[in-house]
Amino acid sequence: MGNKFVMVGGGSTQSPGILEVLRQRAKELNLTDLVLYDNDEERVSLLGQYTKMYYGETGSPVHVSYTTDIEEALKDANFLFMQIRPGLNKQRAIDEKICLRNGVVGQETCGLGGFSFAMRVIPAVLEIVAKAQEICPDAWILNYTNPEAILSEAIYHEFPDAKVLCICDMPVSIEGAIAKYFNKDIHDLTFKYFGLNHFGWWSAVYDENGQDLLPQLREDVLTGKIDTLLISNEETTEDQYWIDTYKRMIQLFKRFPEYFPNCYLQYYLTPDDMVKEDDITFTRGDYVMQGREKRIYEECRRVIAQKSAKDSSLHAGVHGNYIVDIAYAIIHNTHERFTVNMMNHGAISNFDVNAVVEIPAYIGSHGAETINVGEIPTFQKGLMEMQKAYEKKTVEAALTGSYQAAIEAVMLNKTIPNYNIGKKVLDELYEANKQYWPELK
Ligand code: G6P
Ligand code: MN
């Protein structure tokens, strides 16, 4: 029997990259059945029709279908790839603007943009995981949905025994850039990384001889030999946001040279610069809507109208390959090393045992076994503790509808300077998200 894969949020603009990798690697995954599921009928029908033609005309034996019926989608599923976005990028842009107008970070995973997204997405994702526990309890759920940091905290606590892995492609993307800098194959390097999702650091990068390359990278940065890393992720090499972000990541490393930072720390350590550089009339959400979103659905419409995908092609990049690599490791029990979000349970010895952290793990057919990190230094630990408290309070607010929990979460977010601003942004976000957030009392 072959494997049935379900793309939950199959109508998403992030789907095409994954669909292409699944097509190319179907045989090694023993993939025979692919279902695009989404509650957005128009989008899933566009991408679903496109994918059927594209797979068919490229000779793929995989059976492709699409549906808005979750029960039908989940029946007999072996893998769920989940990435959903209640409110779409439209709501993302609204949140960004509310935050920026008040002088604070609006990014969709950091700052209060992330808080707002979490309030929309937590109930929706938990509902899907609950459904999966009912209909296909043996299926593996690989979750890419953002804000992954907060969401993973909710999922692992609500469903401690479910077969879920919460992942993000940012660590592997940056590792690819580091490997490229040293002219190495990423598979020959061993990365020591710890933190929370979009909030972590590399403490060492070992080459195949056991030599740590991080001191060399540090020296090259501190002496001014380099001021950026080349982006290894083909999807983003020409995207000015990512070009600037990689530059700022090197700048952050220069300012805090102990460990190499995940680029998303720019929103916490230099929030004022990030707000200044953002364009309130054209935010990242706007950029994605007018770029990727428009391009993808227009291409679907074109292909559907001409009844052939012969002159169309999708692009396989890091994002698609990473999630498929993990599915592969589960199917073939490879025990390969990946960076994932998992319960700490002592892996970071001086951090909350009951908190989700982003650390390396070996992945096999039984899931992920985390690797011991040991003690982490005071600076990173202090930042992580406040951020973790913020994440936990956000989950509480989403699950209980407590306004008090919400305002406490907001105050724990490092991007919020004081109560007056925190409360004002919270209230404005709530007003703009009435149809998506749980009711707050
Ligand atoms: C990286 C992050 C994801 C994030 C994406 C942003 O891949 O790891 O968490 O969603 O970048 O993409 P976008 O183009 O939507 O800003
Ligand atoms: Mn991510």
Automatic annotation (TrEMBL):
Residues 193-415 form the Glycosyl hydrolase family 4 C-terminal domain. The record marks E108 as: Increases basicity of active site Tyr. Substrate binds at R92, N146, R284. Binds 1 NAD(+) per subunit. This is 6-phospho-alpha-glucosidase. The active site is at D169 (proton donor), Y264 (proton acceptor). Belongs to the glycosyl hydrolase 4 family. Mn(2+) binds at C168, H198. Keywords: Cobalt, Glycosidase, Hydrolase, Iron, Manganese, Metal-binding, NAD, Nickel. It holds the Pfam family Glyco_hydro_4. Coiled coil: none annotated. Its cofactor is NAD(+). GO terms for molecular function: hydrolase activity, hydrolyzing O-glycosyl compounds; metal ion binding; oxidoreductase activity, acting on the CH-OH group of donors, NAD or NADP as acceptor. It comes from Sharpea porci. One of its GO terms (biological process) is carbohydrate metabolic process.
